[in-house]
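Key result, reporting period 2: structure in, sequence out.
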């Protein structure tokens, strides 16, 4: 027998043996998915956990991770066609209400991730003391949604009683550090920089003060055409996420330590654990109940109402239309 034929026979026998113990003859190439994200634990915690544990790879997915600074930029990139799906914060309730994106998966409630910090020398003891002051933040983001709630609760009007200075979050924090503004509405992990750079800086209030009446949720959206054309891929993303989410909740200390070491080395482990606690997470089974009873739809709609008002969205699409709970409910059984 010639050597080449002998080699082919041996290879075939090995392949047959491998297939006999459940290994495929030929591995299919993983499907690439361009995923836009914000680098904050509330947004990318489950993603990195799923990538580290192989949860997405097990579903035949190769996530191409592309980092952005704000959810606004994320949606603009996706609408322009350079992203397939995205994971973000409150902005997930914005563009889909304009008919630009389909929401299909929630990550968490940003329970205390949005925070209002004030300088010690500003004389601000309560939210009412913000009257006549400048507050830096990034308009149209989770921080802005939260700040709007703070001001309404204090019976203050944006533009009349307080001046909002709209900057990218890095610049907003820099303005606060330099003393150019006495207050900043931010999201974690920017609080770490404030604590390090501004002696005596104090957190006045965080988003937990308004939960659950004004819950801010973050989650996933896909381009409209991509969502319609790739139902199996969407299912695979959800399945990978479910595995990652439940691992994150059942092995929290281990998972957060890995996140800190590999993806947040600039944030001390203790601080990252605090940031993790700032979000309200639910098991996949708990999420199912909130999808099924309309809780998620209501949470999304609350924030959509804010964007409709502040951004003057004409003929907004309601959350009951732009959010599709069916794939999740089909995968996670009661």
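The corresponding designed sequence is given below.
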């Amino acid at each position: 027998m010639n050597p080449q034929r002998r080699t082919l026979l041996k290879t075939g026998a090995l392949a047959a043996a491998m297939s006999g113990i459940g290994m495929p003859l030929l591995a299919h190439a993983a499907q690439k998915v361009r995923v836009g994200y914000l680098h904050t634990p509330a947004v990318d915690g489950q993603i990195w956990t799923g990538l580290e544990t192989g949860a997405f790879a097990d579903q035949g997915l190769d996530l191409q991770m592309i980092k952005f600074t704000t959810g606004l930029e994320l949606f603009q990139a996706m609408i322009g066609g350079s992203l397939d799906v995205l994971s973000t914060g409150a902005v997930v309730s914005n563009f889909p209400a304009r008919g630009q994106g389909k929401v299909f998966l929630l990550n968490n409630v940003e329970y205390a991730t949005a925070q209002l910090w004030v300088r010690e020398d500003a004389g601000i003891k309560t939210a009412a003391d913000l009257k006549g002051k400048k507050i830096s933040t990034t308009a149209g983001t989770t921080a802005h949604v939260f700040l709007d709630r703070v001001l309404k609760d204090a019976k203050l009007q944006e533009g009349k009683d307080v001046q909002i200075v709209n900057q990218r979050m890095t610049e907003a924090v820099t303005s606060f550090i330099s003393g150019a503004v006495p207050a900043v509405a931010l999201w974690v992990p920017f609080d770490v920089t404030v604590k390090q750079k501004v002696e005596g800086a104090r957190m006045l209030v965080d988003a937990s003060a308004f939960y659950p009446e004004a819950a801010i949720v973050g989650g996933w959206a896909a381009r409209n055409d991509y969502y319609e054309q790739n139902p199996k891929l969407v299912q695979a993303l959800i399945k990978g996420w479910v595995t990652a989410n439940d691992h994150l909740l059942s092995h929290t200390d281990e998972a957060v330590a890995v996140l800190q070491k590999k993806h947040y080395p600039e944030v001390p482990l203790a601080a990252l654990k605090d940031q993790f606690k700032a979000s309200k997470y639910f098991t996949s089974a708990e999420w199912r109940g909130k999808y099924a009873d309309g809780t998620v739809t209501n949470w999304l709609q609350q924030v959509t109402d804010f964007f409709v008002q502040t951004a003057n969205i004409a003929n907004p699409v309601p959350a009951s239309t732009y959010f599709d709970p069916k794939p999740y409910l089909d995968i996670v059984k009661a």
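The first strand starts at residue 31 and ends at 38. The chain has 14 helices and ten strands. This case is discussed further under Risks and Mitigation.
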